[in-house]
Amino acid sequence: MTSTLRALIELTKPRIVMLVVITVVAGFLVAPAPEGALAVTLLHAAIGTALVAAGTNALNQVAERDVDAIMRRTQARPLPTGRLDVRQAQVFAWTAGIAGVTYLAVFVNTLTAVLAAATLVSYVFVYTPLKRRTTLATVVGAVPGALPVLGGWAATGAGLGREAWILFGIVFLWQLPHFLALAWLYRDDYRRAGLRMLSVEDSNGRKTFSQAAVYAAALLPVSLAPALGGAVGLPYFLGALALSLWLVWASMRALRWVSDRNAARLFGASVTYLPVLLVLMVLDRLA
Questions:
Q1: What is the rounded CA–CA span in Å between residue 222 and residue 217?
Q2: Rounded (to 5) percent helix, strand, coil in the chain
């Protein structure tokens, strides 16, 4: 593998692309699939979404190359280190993003393509610049973060009804304690780069972890809603209840005893939460 190819792959943030694809697969599998929703459609949805996610992440790195050069966590990325030039990155990013949206429109359906395009536009042109201007950027950024699960649902041909929006709400709310904990751990980096994260303006951590606790508490009833509505059964309900109470507890502990250690524990709980919850939901629907 050439150094340029390795740098282009790194530019896409492969782990984030994988998480996005996982949410698409979950959305597809839990949707009440109409007749004709085949496995090949899921494959096409995953491929198209991966391309759009790769392009979105690459465009984000193009836009934030000055910030990445300042932050210790991101100084080794391809653009700050000069392993790629900006023109290469832009061409690659737009090619991947446009190819992904086109692929979804041709091989899946128009709604899935529109949702993917909305994800790219809102992440790159709304969330990314807002990070320099307001602490509300984290909330805004949770919207494009949650849209892919709707894309997976829409790929089946099912309409975006109440159950789909509950799934969106779960992914939306989950992101907030997750990223608030991460922002606290890297608050010095964000301060150095001039980004308007809540943790940068919160010297004692009370605002940061109060919000994390509020969003974790809000996630509890939303995560249980699929079971309460009869869409999934008791195994999911019990698992979702345990996971959500764990996240609330981790958030409250971080609020009561503010420390990097408790922030890291909250972040770890959030990393476990979403994939396990989605697996429980998928297994329940497939049972």
A1: 9
A2: 80, 0, 20
8-state DSSP, 73 = T
10 Å CB burial of residue 56 (0-12, 13-18, 19+) is: buried
> Which tokens belong to 65?
């190359």
Residue 195: φ, ψ to 5°: -90, 140
pLDDT in tens, 235-248: 999 999 999 999 99
pLDDT one-digit tens code per residue, 103-137 = 999 999 999 999 999 999 999 999 999 999 999 99
Find all residues with CB under 8 Å of 282, minimum gap 6, and list them: 26, 29, 30
Q: Which domains does the chain have, with CATH numbers?
A: 1-160 (1.10.357.140), 161-287 (1.20.120.1780)
HSE-CB for 14 with a 13 A CA cutoff: 5
pTM equals 0.94
